[in-house]
Amino acid sequence: MSALPDEEWPEARESHRSLVLLPSQHGPYTVEDWLALPETEERIELIDGSFVVSPAPASGHALCAKRLVRILDDAAPDDVEVVEAANVRVREEGFIPDVVVGWAEPIIANEVVLDSGDVLMAVEIVSPSNRKRDYLVKPASYAAAGVPVFMRVELHGEGVMPLVEVFAAEEGESVKIAAARAGELLSLVEPYEIVFDPAVLVGPRRR
């Protein structure tokens, strides 16, 4: 993946929420450069030496993440925590998964960035702006870094939605181990026992 054209990398980018300051020099950037960026409500990830800036997700995306956190957290053992949008070092890249399931100790310690070894499952919820990354780039990167499980949630596409697919890291490769659409049950034993119908991730609240 090559760096984006110069006009897409201003030193400062203003939004209605924040001012995103990017380094004046052009990449390739390192994880250290990524961690040196100021805090912002926009997501800035480091992918193949380039900074990738994403605006805050749409409300349906945010609602899906919130509901999924609740499901995963309710099922989690005591030594595991579930959080949204944590910084994760994935070898030489810096990702911000929509949901992170990880060991409780580093999360409770308020680490600025989690190592891939701290993560039991990374979850990405696909949106139009990140589709290629969530289908091609991130599954392979997570598996190569040894993240045991990757979950991808597709909200838009053909067939009954949402579609939840789950992949395991096997010898550095991403291998699909489970999938379910709305109206079906997704049943996992890794990273721990989890059972839910993807339908609960969208639409009106179900009591």
From TrEMBL:
One of its GO terms (molecular function) is endonuclease activity. Residues 32-190 form the Putative restriction endonuclease domain. CDD domains: DUF820-like. Keywords: Endonuclease, Hydrolase, Nuclease. Pfam families: Uma2. InterPro entries: Nuclease_put_TT1808, Restrct_endonuc-II-like, Uma2. It comes from the Bacteria. This is Uma2 family endonuclease. It comes from Planomonospora venezuelensis.
